[in-house]
């Protein structure tokens, strides 16, 4: 596999995979990424009293930072969000290619377009009065990260907007060259 595989090319490139040098030193780098992300989550945590938890993780399920969760729960939730996000991204890929018999087949998406769409996949869950939103976003050289936020007694759309905004702030703070989320 070459180094550029899994990376879109050109201006505004989004990496879906962590750069190998980052992966090799992840135990040293993850606390820095975690502190940067935590700082961006503290403002909405204070301003958004309905929020019950927030977590940032790698797309392969490694916990980076969290608020409102025990370390055990954070580790489990990072893995669950990774799995849930992978299922949602797979469904997105399949559904993007599905066309009813009565319609013409759309042009094929390039691998770059597909990766960009998958990188910006979001998942929304509503159960009783609890709402959860998970957004994926590419941050070079860290690869694809996931931000999950949960809240009580608010409209799901409100949570989606706040989660997307926090993901963009984290992306910007980590030096992403990815296009806006």
What does this structure look like?
- The protein has 181 residues and is α+β, with helices and mostly antiparallel strands.
- It has a domain of 120 residues: Beta-Lactamase (2-Layer Sandwich), CATH 3.30.450.
- It contains 5 helices and 5 strands.
- A 5-stranded antiparallel β-sheet has the order 2-1-5-4-3, sandwiched between helices.
- A hairpin with a 3-residue loop joins strand 4 and strand 5.
- Helix 2 crosses helix 5 and helix 3 runs antiparallel to helix 4.
- The longest helix has 27 residues.
- The protein is globular and about 45 Å long.
- The two termini are 28 Å apart.
- The N terminus and C terminus are likely disordered.
- This is Roadblock/LAMTOR2 domain-containing protein.
Distance between the termini: 28 Å
Query: Rg, please?
Result: 17 Å
**Percent of residues in β-strands:** 15-25%
**Overall geometric form:** globular
- Please identify which CATH superfamily of the domain at 34-94 and 115-173 we are dealing with: Dynein light chain 2a, cytoplasmic
Q: Would you state the CATH class of the domain at 34-94 and 115-173?
A: Alpha Beta
What is the number of helices? 5
Whole-number mean pLDDT: 77
User: Main sheet: which strands, in order across?
Assistant: 2-1-5-4-3
Note the main attributes of this structure.
181 residues; Roadblock/LAMTOR2 domain-containing protein; single chain; alpha+beta; disordered C terminus; disordered N terminus; 5 helices
Write the layout of secondary structure elements.
Elements: H1 20-24, H2 26-47, E1 51-58, E2 63-67, H3 71-97, H4 111-119, E3 122-127, E4 130-139, E5 143-152, H5 156-173
Antiparallel strand pairs: 1-2, 1-5, 3-4, 4-5
């Amino acid at each position: 596999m070459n180094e550029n595989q899994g990376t879109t090319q050109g201006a505004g490139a989004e990496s879906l995979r962590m750069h190998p040098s980052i992966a090799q030193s992840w135990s040293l780098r993850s606390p820095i990424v975690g502190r940067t992300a935590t700082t961006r989550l503290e403002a909405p945590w204070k301003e958004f009293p309905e929020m019950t938890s927030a977590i940032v993780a790698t797309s392969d399920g490694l916990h980076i930072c969290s608020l409102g969760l025990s370390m055990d729960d954070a580790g489990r939730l990072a893995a669950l969000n990774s799995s849930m996000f992978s299922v949602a991204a797979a469904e997105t890929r399949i559904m993007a290619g599905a066309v009813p018999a009565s319609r013409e087949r759309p042009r094929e998406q390039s691998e770059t377009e597909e990766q960009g769409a998958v990188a910006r996949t979001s998942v929304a869950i509503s159960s009783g009065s609890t709402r959860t939103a998970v957004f994926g976003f590419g941050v070079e050289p860290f690869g694809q990260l996931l931000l999950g936020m949960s809240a009580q007694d608010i409209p799901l759309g409100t949570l989606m907007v706040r989660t997307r905004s926090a993901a963009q702030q984290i992306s910007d703070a980590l030096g992403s060259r990815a296009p806006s989320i």
